[in-house]
Amino acid sequence: LNTNVELYQSLQKLLADKNLVDSLDPETRRVAELFMFDFEISGIHLDKEKRKRAVDLNVKILDLSNTFLMGTNFPNKIEKHLLPEHIHRNFAVTGNHVIIDGLHAEAPDDLVREAAYKIFLYPNAGQLKCLEELLSNRDLLAKLVGYSTYSHRALQGTIAKNPETVMEFLEKLSDKLSERTVKDFEMIRGMKMKLNPQNSELMPWDPPYYSGVIRAERYNIEPSLYCPFFSLGACMEGLNILFTKLLGITLYAEQPAKGEVWCEDVRKLAVVHESEGLLGYIYCDFFQRADKPHQDCHFTIRGGRLKEDGNYQLPVVVLMLNLPHSSRNSPTLLTPGMMENLFHEMGHAMHSMLGRTRYQHVTGTRCPTDFAEVPSILMEYFANDYRVVTQFARHYQTGQSLPKNMVSRLCESKKVCAAADMQLQVFYATLDQIYHGKHPLRTSTTDILRETQEKFYGLPYVPNTAWQLRFSHLVGYGAKYYSYLMSRAVASMVWKECFQQDPFNRAAGERYRREMLAHGGGKEPMLMVQGMLQKCPSIDDFVSALVSDLDLDFETFLMDS
């Protein structure tokens, strides 16, 4: 449709008529402008020859994206005799080769992690060429349709609006994090020295493992201690209690019709408001299956929209998780991470359920990338608040409530080395911006990786590695990898301003629905944020919100001391 010239000309004629545009309601005007934007980033406004060039470039970019994506997971292999024999058992071995299919970041043996890092990230010439072509063709397309860089094209309509704002956000965040990151690295280095005194230099393959060791040693958050309190039934009841108190909404299990669901253990939930009635349906595909993708996600089956007869087409979505099945002796038990993921994905589902847009084009989660994660990340704050958790976390055998100090320990454990983790995300997001910035790139993608890593992360680049060739998000989030950090900043501000004092505040819940969830992508994202916070946040506000989340809770600190 984005290459249909008649449709484009009809829309162009409408938008050129000032009186007609002024008579449209704000959402209709925004949808018309979004359609126009979609047309023009596909090059429809160009002459015939350039238009064909834009279509060809789009096809080529799609092809390169798929090839690159497949290459990000492709294993590397090395001859057996080149690796110490005692670490072979950590990897798959076929014939004379050891197969390395990932970073093995949690392996306790330093040598296993080092070998995995150096071999898995060893550059593949074909993948390198594919990435260079992908970036170069994206740049050609952006220039062809009137943008100075691909990043400028990708960021139109987002909270950030342009790459200059994104870089300001990332640079300020990096500055504010730097001291904390140095302290985190010192702490990790100390733990490495304690466990491996012969080789205590901190390397990029160390932080995930050693920060986990520090977390376990300091807070004793063994998942098996928590699982009995987080049965799936209890967690669903917790969501029900939260939504009832905040939004007047209840989740009811419904019996699906014969043939309605794709697997017998998929559950159907009706989302019902206390006065408005049925709002939509959520299909919960929660359990592990052999042929199922290993990814927790939310997706739309049918978007909400106002129908011609004046009735509202109700949204229908799927929540997909990979939870273990119940056993003969116990119900399905969730780890704290699984429980948080359930709340996160349910945040997306509620965005879909409560969107009341006139058009499907902007329904629910169909909004700019740096706003789309706000409702889901906000739900993580509820999942980590003792006042919420105590409503539902009960031991499945004894009925005992999860003790407050266990919730506090869990929350504080997430702050261990969190500055270094966030600094890593800043590095990835900056790399993404540079790759999609001014072209031709001034040097190779690997040289850019090395420079950016040294400036924005702090741990040394390892020669003959090319992490960017495993960076799969360059495909789906090209120029938008920063979005998760910005969404977290907005969610943090909404939590602190509106819900921290009382996570069950009905007035705040109704405002959240009215100002943020109801509009989907039908309103400019910054206007929704302003409406919720009752002020226009600055880049400094976003940075401060993220950094203040890293502060330890004083009460827990005293309790642990």
- The best one-word shape is globular
Q: What is the number of E strands?
A: 10
The averaged pLDDT comes out at 95
CATH class of the domain at 200-403 and 479-560: Mainly Alpha
InterPro entries: M3A_MIP, MetalloPept_cat_dom_sf, Neurolysin/TOP_dom2, Pept_M3A_M3B, Pept_M3A_M3B_dom
Catalytic activity: Release of an N-terminal octapeptide as second stage of processing of some proteins imported into the mitochondrion
EC number: 3.4.24.59
Function: Cleaves proteins, imported into the mitochondrion, to their mature size.
Question: Which helices and strands appear, and what pairs or packs with what?
Answer:
Blueprint: H1 5-16, H2 18-23, H3 26-41, H4 48-72, E1 76-79, E2 92-94, E3 97-100, H5 110-120, H6 125-144, H7 150-154, H8 163-195, H9 207-219, H10 223-226, H11 232-247, E4 249-254, E5 267-273, E6 277-287, E7 297-302, E8 305-306, E9 312-313, E10 316-323, H12 336-354, H13 369-372, H14 374-383, H15 386-389, H16 404-413, H17 418-435, H18 445-456, H19 473-476, H20 483-499, H21 506-517, H22 525-533, H23 539-548, H24 554-560
Parallel strand pairs: 6-10
Antiparallel strand pairs: 1-3, 2-3, 4-5, 5-6, 7-10, 8-9
GO cellular component, one term: mitochondrial matrix
Organism: Mustela putorius furo (European domestic ferret)
Keywords: Acetylation, Calcium, Cobalt, Hydrolase, Iron, Magnesium, Manganese, Metal-binding, Metalloprotease, Mitochondrion, Protease, Transit peptide, Zinc
